[in-house]
Design brief:
Structural class: alpha+beta
Number of helices: 11
Oligomer: single chain
Distance between the termini: 77 Å
Helix content: 55-70%
Strand content: 5-15%
Low-confidence stretches: 1-15, 102-106
Order of helices and strands: HHHHHHHHHHEHEEEE
Largest sheet: 5 strands, mixed
Radius of gyration: 36 Å
Number of domains: 2
Protein name: Signal transduction histidine kinase
Keywords: Membrane, Transmembrane, Transmembrane helix
Organism: Nocardia acididurans
Mean pLDDT: 79
Length: 348
């Protein structure tokens, strides 16, 4: 018996022997088709020697077991499924050998041969002990039938072939385990490298975007400063507005749009204090909800002529997604937008 190491961290449920053998996707469906065809070819021999209902039921049990041990996506295979496969093999063998028809009794071990393929897949899916339990169950059924003189002694000896099949696959699984662990580590390292490269690419893309924006909005005034020209009052005001706009891009990048930036610039030009804050609540939020926050902020900025306007996107996990607080000498107004896009306005 070859034990399966199931200690945490040793087996990755997303990378088992079937990944190593390429048994996923189209290849897995082809393998399933071949397995089911092989089981059917073995089990069809029972129709000549057993009652029709017993032959049909035995075939159905083994075909369903063969399908389940392949289509369940979790490795190691869930224990209830593995136990069903082992029990189905013993039951199918029992249906074949406990009601043979006379002269063809020596042919009643075809179910045992078909079961060996199901047990082999169980081993590949990480259920070695359950596979050997199934082998013991099939052998017990044949032994009971042999004691009752219903099958020949040479037939019982022939059941050593399924035992040899499961033993060979068990040895194969033990030999492949170190390679499986090494390939899992290599894949995890490759995934970490890919994630790091994606992060670097995203950071580089954001840096390029920010530099392009800085070049577009700040180059003209910076060139005048570099030339040593004396700035007019209008140009100094332009520098103040530009500095605030660039600060918005750093503190609230998800709020910066052409529409909102234009409204903020206009409000600042009228003497309104504008503060934009982004604490990351837009992550995973639909675009139309994000748009509703921006529209509410733009509306308040366009209407403000004095006081202050604070636009904040709250952290993830809050019921309220964003708030727009407009304070003026006449009144204060707060607008809340929740994660479902509902807008609530509070007037003081």
């Amino acid at each position: 018996m070859v034990p399966v190491d199931t200690r945490p961290g040793e087996l990755d449920p997303r990378f088992g022997l079937r990944d190593l053998l390429g048994l996923r996707g189209r290849a897995a469906w082809l393998f399933l088709l071949l397995l089911e065809a092989t089981i059917a070819l073995y089990m069809i021999r029972n129709f000549d020697q057993s009652p029709l209902w017993a032959a049909l039921l035995g075939m159905a049990l083994l075909l369903s077991a063969g399908a389940l041990v392949l289509v369940i996506p979790v490795d190691p295979l869930p224990l209830p499924v593995a136990l069903y496969a082992a029990g189905a093999a013993a039951s199918a063998t029992g249906l074949a050998v406990l009601s043979p028809s006379g002269d063809h009794a020596h042919q009643t071990v075809w179910s045992a041969f078909a079961s060996s393929y199901v047990f082999a897949v169980l081993v590949l899916r990480g259920r070695v002990r359950t596979a050997w339990l199934g082998v013991a169950g099939v052998a017990g059924v044949l032994l009971l039938a042999g004691l009752g003189s219903q099958i020949h002694t040479r037939t019982v000896i022939g059941t050593l072939v399924p035992i040899g099949t499961v033993a060979a696959i068990s040895v194969f699984a033990a030999v492949m385990k170190p390679m499986q662990r090494s390939l899992r580590l290599l894949r995890e390292d490759a995934m970490m490298r890919a994630a790091a490269e994606a992060t670097m690419a995203a950071a580089d893309s954001e840096r390029t975007r920010q530099l392009a924006r800085l070049d577009r909005v700040a180059r003209p005034i910076l060139e005048r400063i570099a030339d040593g020209a004396e700035l007019t009052a209008t140009e100094r005001e332009e520098c103040r507005l530009l500095e605030a706009e660039l600060r918005d891009g750093l503190r609230a990048p998800q709020l910066v749009t052409d529409e909102l930036s234009g409204a903020a610039r206009g409000a600042r030009g009228r003497g309104v204090e504008v503060i934009l804050l982004d604490d990351g609540g837009f992550a995973g939020v639909p675009e139309w909800v994000r748009r509703r926050v921006i529209d509410a902020a733009t509306k308040e900025l366009d209407a403000a002529n004095a006081g202050s306007v604070t636009v904040r996107v709250l952290p993830l996990g809050r019921r309220v997604l964003g708030t727009v607080l407009a304070q003026s000498p006449d009144q204060d107004r707060r607008t809340d937008i929740d994660t479902d896009g509902n807008v609530t306005v509070w007037d003081d």
